[in-house]
Amino acid sequence: MIRDLEEVLNAVLDERSREFMAEAVRCYHASAYRSAVVTAMAAGMDDLRRKLDGIVAGTGVPKPLKAAHAEIEKRF
């Protein structure tokens, strides 16, 4: 199990997301399983939000996607 977690952590390319995932792994090792799940989900959602930033910055992006991005950023 430990190797699996280390492989997941090494697969995360974005530094900020990797920090979230490292915290999730620390929570897991401390037997704080609920915190590990919540932190891992936060890492995934944060990574998706930043990827969406990059997509919306491009050209030819549909208006509904731009509107969804604006709503996400407003709530963030």
Describe this structure in words.
- Helix 1 runs antiparallel to helix 2.
- The protein has 4 helices and no strands.
- The protein has 76 residues and is mostly helical.
- The protein starts with a helix and ends with a helix.
**Helix content percent band:** over 70%
Query: Tally of extended strands?
Result: 0
Shape: elongated
Average pLDDT level:
87
- Number of contiguous helices: 4
Low-confidence stretches: none
Quickly give the structural class.
mainly alpha
For the largest beta-sheet, the strand count, sense and barrel status come to: none
Distance between the termini: 33 Å
Q: If you compute it from the alpha carbons, what radius of gyration comes out, rounded to the nearest whole angstrom?
A: 15 Å
Secondary-structure element sequence? HHHH
The portion of residues forming beta strands comes to under 5%
Assembly form of the protein: single chain
